[in-house]
Amino acid sequence: MSKQTQRPRRRDVQITFDCSDPARVAAFWAEALSYRLQDPPAGFESWEQALEAMGVPPENRNDASAVVDPEGFGPRLFFQRVPERKQVKNRVHLDIRAAPGLAGDARMAVLEAESERLAAHGATRLKRYEPAPPLGAGHITMADPEGNEFDLD
Question: What's the pLDDT score for residue 61?
């Protein structure tokens, strides 16, 4: 195979969120996706301990956070503090596959339950889209604690 026809190797993907409170948004997405906060660097029992040793001032210790898939398959989500607030609808959003293989009322019941669970963790429900067969299975659009839209699908 020539160099021109070789496929590039698989790339790792990180999804980055701009936000005003990285710790809060990271905790929400860890809950939503069954992820966990990324461990601190080797040799440190906590991020607070690591940031102290690195000389990061207390006022900058919530400038970033990250969550990871405990199974190691999903992308890392990185949250970085930015000064500006969210202005408009996302052009890219995440779909949380909460009801795989289900259809109709059973599907929507699972999505409703997940919507309520995530609302208890700071999400806002925006709109329910009813099933419209054959192509529309129905979904619920929500927003995370800082207004980033996502779908329960």
Answer: 96
Largest CA distance in the chain: 57
Q: Any idea where the domains of the chain sit in the sequence? A: 12-84, 92-153
The three state secondary structure string of the chain is CCCCCCCCCCCCCEEEEEECCHHHHHHHHHHHHCCEECCCCCCCCCHHHHHHHCCCCHHHCCCEEEEECCCCCCCEEEEEECCCCCCCCCCCCEEECCCCCCCHHHHHHHHHHHHHHHHCCCCEEEEEECCECCCECCEEEEECCCCCEEEEC
Peptide bond into 134 cis (omega under 30): yes
Domain 12-84 has CATH 3.30.720: yes
pLDDT of the residue at 124: 98
Question: Would you say the pTM of this structure is higher than 0.90?
Answer: no
- Give ∠ CA 96-99-100 in degrees, rounded to 5: 95
pLDDT digits (tens, 9 = 90+) for 49-85: 999 999 999 999 999 999 999 999 999 999 999 998 8
